[in-house]
Write a structure and sequence with these properties.
The protein is mainly alpha-helical and 112 residues long. 84% of the residues lie in helices and 0% in strands. Helix 2 runs antiparallel to helix 4 (93-111). 14% of the residues are buried.
Length: 112
């Protein structure tokens, strides 16, 4: 159930990110037409949407970590020999995608 839910959430996050990109495009068009108030509103909406995507991905990561921690509690191999842990694990694929989308959105908004 957790995996299917994560896929659904991932698809939803992707759709939100696509919508944020559409808002950016509309903001660029509004700026080109000189509709500064509309462009400002669209940029604000895109920023709020990007924050929502970031929060959604963060919640998905927390939920996945919780599920993995529950599975790890039942795993007895750790008691047999402790595994070496890296000092700093690289971010997951979803987190990298969310950060890249947020960075791209920020750069696009700065260029506008």
């Amino acid at each position: 159930m957790g995996l299917e839910s994560a896929r659904g959430d991932g698809v939803f996050a992707g759709q939100l990110a696509d919508h944020a990109r559409r808002l950016q495009g509309e903001a660029r068009e509004a700026l080109a037409r000189g509709e500064f108030t509309r462009a400002s509103a669209l940029i604000g909406d895109a920023e709020l949407l990007a924050e929502d995507v970031h929060g959604l991905v963060d919640d998905m990561e927390r939920r996945e970590l919780g599920e993995l921690a529950m599975l790890a509690a039942y795993d007895v191999r750790g008691a047999a020999r402790p595994a070496a842990r890296p000092a700093l694990a690289p971010p997951s694929r979803r987190m990298r995608i969310a950060l890249a989308a947020t960075l791209a959105l920020s750069l696009t908004l700065v260029e506008c």
